[in-house]
Amino acid sequence: MKILIVSAADINGGAHKAAYRLHKSLLENKIDSQMLVQNKLSDEYQIIGPSSNIRKRIINPLRPAVDYIFMKIKKIDTLFSSSYFPFSEITRQINEIKPDLVHLHWITGGMMPIEDIAKINHPIIWSLHDMWAFTGGCHYDNYCGLYKKNCGTCKMIPKKKKYDLSRMVFNRKKKTYEQIKNLTIIATSGWLAKCTKESTLLKNREIYTLPNPIDTNLFKPIDKIISRDLFKIPKNKRVILFSALHSLKDSRKGALELFNAINTLTLKNIVIVVAGSSKPKQFQQLKYPVFFIPPLKDEVSLPFLYNVADVMIAPSLQENLANSILESLACGIPVVAFDIGGNGDLVKHKINGYLAQSVNSKSLAMGIEWTLSPDNYSSLSKNALSIAKKFNYKLISKKYINLYKKVLKKS
């Protein structure tokens, strides 16, 4: 069985890391797995990057900029991918590799135009890490729900027109998907599966729910003193961790809601760690000291990051299945999150963390104080470890392999 995993990058960004971890777990299960990426950061030979230095250094870095230009022209201030830029080599590479099955993951960022998906000559499985595959271009719909009908008059686009960029992208997807016979969908959370089944574009496809895997031999409890020494975090304080890529730039990540909650806390001996962002020039004043940790680009240092914390907060306003939650739980760190999206697949209320009312900063503050209470903390931490083990890559990868076999047998 020859599997080709396709993702815009290999080890940079949550969805890409999820694809990479699946690839590595397949190799451990003696599956012939390769990864095809637009932006290759690792040096592993099973990962195939751009075919030339011109593509690597000039063309491929330009491709995400085209989507960004579309956003700026339309004055869209959230992540929105039109996937329009032509001249992608991805489909040609896929068909030359001749895999038994193509497993798409996060393929935006200018990686390939929507229309190219229909040019793939092999059975396709597509793992959805957000809502983009069935919307008119947004990765999260901000609860507008138009993907259930027909996108247009998009709330993300300031100029309200019925036939706007979102309608154009939606129609391009509809036309493309109609040409694909062998397409199976994986939603990585129960919430995303529900959304997919309600969508106009993908509701008639076979839809499975399979989570992202994690290596619990890597993500595990590590001595807090050692971890805090590495990041120069005080050892005699309780640490509240907020970890998300571009944590302060993307309003969907919920930094404002979290900081409002923090300023109402009555706890003492607290410090805040904001990971995934350097200290900005201007920053909201908080009642506790704040430490900033820029984005980490390797897997080895991440477990040390989570182990500086006593609690990890995931205040996203809309979320699928956050790697940061799963990584934190695997390190024995309880998580406080809003009760939205796929958070409930990982955080069990008052068992391994706390699900706050959506989107309510006071409820989030209550969750932080409840979680850090000495009466609750020990059992929460123990339960975090036991629940995370259910997502161990050795268990999850077998479920993916079984699905591959099922799809190949059918095709």
Features:
globular, 13 strands, 2 domains, 7-stranded parallel β-sheet, 6-stranded parallel β-sheet, 35% helix, single chain, alpha/beta, Rossmann fold, 411 residues
End-to-end separation: 13 Å
Characterize the main sheet: 7 strands, parallel
Overall radius of gyration? 21 Å
What is the CATH architecture annotation of the largest domain?
3-Layer(aba) Sandwich
Overall mean confidence score, pLDDT: 93
The count of β-strands is 13
What's the order of the H and E elements? EHEEHHEEHEHEHEHEEHEHEHEHHH
- Tell me, briefly, the overall form: globular
Structural class: alpha/beta
Quote the beta fraction.
Answer: 15-25%
- What is the CATH top level name of the largest domain? Alpha Beta
Q: If you consult CATH, what is the topology of the largest domain?
A: Rossmann fold
Spans of 5+ residues with little confidence (pLDDT < 50)? none
> Superfamily at the CATH H level of the largest domain?
Glycogen Phosphorylase B
Query: Helix fraction?
Result: 25-40%
Number of alpha- plus pi-helical segments: 13
**Tally of domains:** 2
* Widest beta sheet: strand line-up: 3-2-1-4-5-6-7
SSE topology sketch:
Blueprint: E1 2-9, H1 14-28, E2 32-39, E3 47-48, H2 53-73, H3 90-97, E4 101-104, E5 124-128, H4 165-177, E6 183-187, H5 190-198, E7 206-209, H6 224-231, E8 238-243, H7 255-262, E9 270-275, E10 290-293, H8 302-306, E11 311-314, H9 323-330, E12 335-338, H10 343-346, E13 353-356, H11 361-371, H12 374-388, H13 393-410
Q: Explain this structure to me?
A:
This protein has 411 residues and is α/β, with parallel strands linked by helices. It folds into two domains: 2-213 and 392-410, Rossmann fold, CATH 3.40.50.2000; 224-391, Rossmann fold (3-Layer(aba) Sandwich). 35% of the residues lie in helices and 16% in strands. Strand 6 (183-187), helix 5 (190-198) and strand 7 (206-209) form a beta-alpha-beta unit. Helix 9 crosses helix 12 (374-388). The longest helix is centred in the N-terminal third of the chain and has 21 residues, at 53-73. The mean pLDDT is 93.
